[in-house]
Amino acid sequence: MSTGQSVSELEPFSWQVLAAKRVRTENIIVAAETGSGKTLVSCLAAVEALATGKVAFIVPTSRLLAHQQFLRMQDFLAANQRKEKVAEVTGYTAGGWGEPEWKDCRQRYDVFVGTADIFRAAFIDHGYLHLQEFSMLVVDECHHVRGASSVAELMMHLHSDLESRRRRPSLKVRVLGLTATLVNAKAEVRRDFEVSRQELVDVMQATVEPCLGISPRRPPTFRKLDAGQPPTKESLQLAAELCDLIWANIQLKGVQKCNQKTLEKVTRSLGMVLCE
Predict the structure, then answer these.
(1) Could you tell me the CA-to-CA distances from 241 to 231, 234, 268 in Å, in that order?
(2) I want to staple 89 with a disulfide (CB 3.0 to 4.6 A). Which of 36, 114, 159, 239 is the partner?
(3) CA-CA distance, 86 to 73, in Å (whole number)?
């Protein structure tokens, strides 16, 4: 959280409470800038969802981000005196698990926080996890959910009606998407943005939460830093010697075909950096 506070210490705003309540009955995507409080929405919604099933918190990209969310969820549940347990399932913690380990995890834990590839393998490839046991899937950085990504595959699996062979929102498992942007690729014109936004909405089978009442972030402020004492004569001499050594090695490697003036300028600029 950008405030430096633990997620459990934050007092929810009205828009966060409304978004968490809305997930009870429909799939939504909370699109708000970084630091606005999307994580708190997911924690509030998770507490509600735990009354009817397990909760999975999916991070598409990084196990480090997954670990961060794992700690936040643990902290939030403990602060609210909840007894549910949180499991961290990433390639580092659960990469070598088989049926016995996943069965034990399902029996002992209520909230699963992990990476997309692990969840895809557990839900789809091996069937270690069962969607019917879950009441909500939280997808962080959901703008990555496109194409043949692991979460996109999981969404297709969740929202497919085998009888009608059509896509429709799951009747039991709610989906909460969190993102700071609705567009994964660069949108050159408005039409590109609209198409990308609709693709995300379709694959998630969700609507975009308006987040009414969210407070705009204050612009950053800057202050001039003291550069400190000027470099000593010895440091200047050392910088000059290093530049001469670098330049000599560049010439030795045979780069005569390159623009020597440009290379020499870059080398001298490096010397300035070394002096600083």
Answers:
(1) 15, 11, 11
(2) 114
(3) 7
Rounded to whole angstroms, the Cα distance separating 64 from 268 reads: 39
Over residues 22-42, mean pLDDT: 93
Query: Please, which residues have CB within 8 angstroms of residue 151's CB and are 6 or more apart in sequence?
Result: 58, 60, 116, 119, 120, 139, 142, 144, 145
Starting at the earlier edge strand, list the strands of the sheet with 134-139.
Answer: 86-89, 111-115, 54-59, 134-139, 174-179, 28-31, 207-209
- Partner residues linked to 54 by β-bridges: 134
Please name every residue paired with 84 in a beta bridge, in sequence order, or none if there are none: none
Judging by DSSP bridges, how do beta strands 160-161 and 166-167 pair with one another? antiparallel
Look at residues 143, 92, 150 and name the one whose alpha carbon lies nearest to residue 117.
150
The single-letter code of the amino acid at 88 is: E
The phi, psi pair for 98, rounded to 5°, reads -120, -165
Q: Which two tokens stand for residue 31?
A: 């699109």
Q: Residue 27 gets which letter from DSSP?
A: -
Return d(Cα 84, Cα 73) in angstroms, integer: 10
Pairing of strands 174-179, 86-89: unpaired
- Long-range Cβ contacts of 213-216 (<8 Å, 24+ apart): 213/13, 213/14, 213/15, 214/13, 214/15, 214/32, 214/36, 214/37, 215/13
Six token digits for residue 192: 């590109």
Backbone angles phi, psi at 13, to 5 degrees: -80, 165
The answer to whether 110 touches 55, Cβ cutoff 8 Å, is: yes
Residues 6 or more apart from 26 whose CB is under 8 A from it?
169, 174, 206, 207
Calpha distance 158→50 (Å, rounded)? 19
Q: What is the pLDDT of residues 42-84, one digit of tens each?
A: 999 999 999 999 999 999 878 889 999 999 999 999 999 999 9
Is-contact 19 207, C-beta < 8 A? no
Strand, coil or helix: 276: coil
